[in-house]
Amino acid sequence: MIEGLGRNDGKELVEACPDLSGNYTASSHKSPIGVVELQQQGCTGRAVGHWTFTVVGNKVTIGGRGVTGIISKTGEKVKVQWSNGIVYEQLITACPDLSGNYTASSHASPIGVVQLQQQGCTGRAGHHWAFTVVGNKVSIDGKGVTGVISKTGEKVKIQWSNGIVYEQLTPTTTPTITPNTTPKACPDLSGKYTASTYTSGNGVVELQQQGCTGRAVGHWTFTVVGNKVTIDGRGVIGVISKTGEKVKIQWSNDIVYEKIITAY
């Protein structure tokens, strides 16, 4: 019972188990840790992908860990002060859709192209890491890296806490002169290529592509945006050119791919 209140008054002020469902920023000593999603049914719930919890009145307990939290509420915003010093603050904001292709750069030097795919408030970068978006913040799950989202017109920019910057690539369109003169958003690189460096032959590589992504058979994966192709996770970029049906890729590591046109 709360001091100074009658037994019935206390029941009016404290819910049996308030619903903590939502996304929260997690911080320790005012330093951000990341974003946590809590899901709750009745008086029990879970931190998505992690531990379970139980709520009683203004107290929440993490199952089997001996950690408890005090719940407070300002308007619709919930705050949880945990006994281990960590603080959760609920985010009452929408999550903008970051889906699209981005140039990645560090200290103004290009690294490559990254494709982000998002559903709801969560998504992933191609075949790599997953992320969570809350308001103008995005967090890479499990890696302690956060980003601040800004927008100019329809173009999105993400400034990551590790110094890397993503800038969204807006697909360009050109006036259609004939049905075949408009560049594709991502040309199909499927086929076999001779690979050479400094005019020395290295062998034959087969590329397979679906949509804007593909793989070198038995090796790495890649993403195509406009006339650029990026090897995922390796920082290698190629410039695509075409003469008739023959495709050429000039890679940033000085290797050159030239498509083999099979005669029938």
Helix share bin: under 10%
Per the CATH scheme, the topology name of the largest domain is Lipocalin
The largest β sheet comes out as:
8 strands, antiparallel, barrel
| Rg for CA atoms | 26 Å
Structural class: mainly beta
Provide the low-confidence segments as ranges.
Answer: 1-14, 172-184
Average pLDDT confidence is: 80
CATH-derived architecture of the largest domain: Beta Barrel
End-to-end separation in angstroms reads 88 Å
- Order of strands across the biggest sheet? 1-2-3-4-5-6-7-8
Query: How many strands in all?
Result: 24
Q: What's the total helix number?
A: 1
Overall number of domains: 3
Report the order of strands and helices.
Answer: HEEEEEEEEEEEEEEEEEEEEEEEE
Quick recap:
The protein has one helix and 24 strands.
Task: Write up this protein.
3% of the residues lie in helices and 57% in strands. It has one helix and 24 strands. The chain has one helix at 7-13, and strands spanning 22-28, 31-41, 44-47, 52-56, 59-62, 67-74, 77-82, 86-90, 100-106, 109-119, 122-125, 130-134, 137-140, 145-152, 155-160, 164-168, 191-197, 200-210, 213-216, 221-225, 228-231, 236-243, 246-251, 255-259. An eight-stranded antiparallel β-barrel has the order 1-2-3-4-5-6-7-8. It has an eight-stranded antiparallel β-barrel with strand order 9-10-11-12-13-14-15-16. An eight-stranded antiparallel barrel has the order 17-18-19-20-21-22-23-24. The longest helix has 7 residues, at 7-13. The protein is elongated.
